[in-house]
Amino acid sequence: MSRFLALALALTAAPAHAAAPVDPVVPAPTATDWAALARLPDWSGSWFPVISDQVKQVTTNPAPWKPAVQNQIDHWTAEEVAGRPRGLLVDCLPHGVPTFYLITHNSIEFLVTPGRVTVLGESDGNRLVRIHTDGRKAPEDPDPSFHGYNVGRWEGDTLSVSTTAILPQTWLAVSEAVGVPIGEGAHVEQRFHLIGPDTLAVDLTITAPAVLTKPWQTRRLFTRKRQRSYEIVEGVCRQGDFEPTTDQWGNPSWRLTQQSADGNILAPGHP
Amino acid sequence: MLKKLLPAALIACAVAVPALAHHSFAMFDQTKVVNLRGVIKEYRWVNPHVSLFIEVNEGSAKHGVWAVELTSPGNLTRLGWSRKSLNVGDKVEIEVNPLRDGGLGGGFRKATVLATGQVLQARLVEIEKPS
After folding, report:
1. Which of B11, B17, B20 has the most A C-beta neighbours within 10 Å, making it the best mutation to test the interface with A?
2. Fewer CB within 10 Å of terminal CB in chain B, N or C?
3. What's the confidence (pLDDT) of residue B5?
């Protein structure tokens, strides 16, 4: 009887004795850490995507879609050509990684701080990607997210980034109207490096076993701009769904604007 | 009970309205160009697409109020635009790629402000090279 009692006590007491999950502390950066940033390449300024090259990349180096997925891509491409675009971004959810780099039409900028590189975007809600460069490994089972869990490492003047834990619904897109959900188990490697004084290359290796037959290696280019007019501005995606009005008290307010099913603004009186 | 449910249902309907702000421009026919000559009725300097309404009452384009869409305020700023580039009442001539469904709408190509002769364009390819 006492043996059973001891076992029961041990079982009920077990949770109290289980090791608390480790929650590592990120130490405060030191003066040396800040000084070390000066040895990294200068990526200041705003980086505007080379949109014509995005298109060229997709046509000259298409993604190795699985045959069934290729059928979907062909279908949506034909729909776009026919003027029936399926707007991948109309719901204003994030592009996510890797589409954030693949098809954006707006600038990005890099905030480099000790142990971190933060990629700040303009498009669709000023999205951002946090890249941890403090030597950590990705957690074993992080919560999936649109931009995934990003771990980076400086290899000379190249920032090498590994992105995992991407939500399977995140688009793997080749245009704003053509793409498929990236699916389970996706993994994206990125190598950010300058290939000219004001030209940044992002070399991506996209592994998406649900939709690709093999990893897709593709490059996206960004051009550095230093003029103030190129500084990133607020980019609230849903703002275009509204038009200004006044409320019943006379306060400035918003009301939903008139849009077509495709999302374009309709003039007053449009049927 | 119904009184309690009704507002909730109305709210549910309101939130169920899809957000459609960021869309592809494929609904505009890139192979066609229509010239709109008329007066600016509204100019919305908002993300993700700046838009304007122009009342067309001369020329060969269908008469009526057309809705014209452009790229984002940030990108237009880099192309020399501002939220004051166009004003309600300005007489303008605007080139658009028209809606494929024949509706009074189009994707912006070029605008000329008739009073000043100023030409405004919005070709992103102009700003993607190093400067």
Report:
1. B20
2. N
3. 42
Q: Which residues of A148-170 are buried (b: 16+ CB within 10 A; e: fewer)?
A: bbbbbeeeeebbbbbbbbbbeeb
Q: Residue B100: closest CA among chain A residues belongs to which residue?
A: A83
Residue A51 and residue A168 share a domain:
yes
Sorting pLDDT into bands at 50, 70 and 90, what band is A252? very high
**ipTM computed for the complex:** 0.77
Q: Which residue of A has its CA nearest to B103?
A: A270
Mean pLDDT, contiguous 10-residue spans, chain B (131 residues): 42 41 79 96 92 94 95 91 95 95 92 96 85 71
Residue ranges of the alpha helices (H) in chain A?
A: 2-17, 31-36, 51-60, 67-81, 99-102, 123-126
Contacts of A86 in chain B (CB under 8 A): 24
Q: What is residue A233's predicted lDDT score, i.e. its pLDDT?
A: 93
How far, rounded to the nearest angstrom, does the alpha carbon of residue B40 sit from its chain's CA centroid?
11
* Number of domains forming the structure of chain A: 2
Q: Where are the domains of chain B?
A: 25-127
User: Does residue B97 sit in helix, strand or coil?
Assistant: strand
Residue A113 covered by a domain: yes
Domain that holds residue A136: 39-230
Residues of B within 8 A of A52 (CB-CB) are 125, 128
- State how far residue A97 is from chain B, nearest Cα, in angstroms: 18
Size of interface A-B (CB pairs under 8 A): 161
Same domain flag for A121 and A167: yes
CB contact under 8 A, A105 and B71: yes
**In terms of Cα–Cα distance, which of B79, B70, B80 is closest to B128?**
B79
Smallest CA–CA distance, residue A73 to chain B, in Å, is: 16
A139 and A82, same structural domain?
A: yes
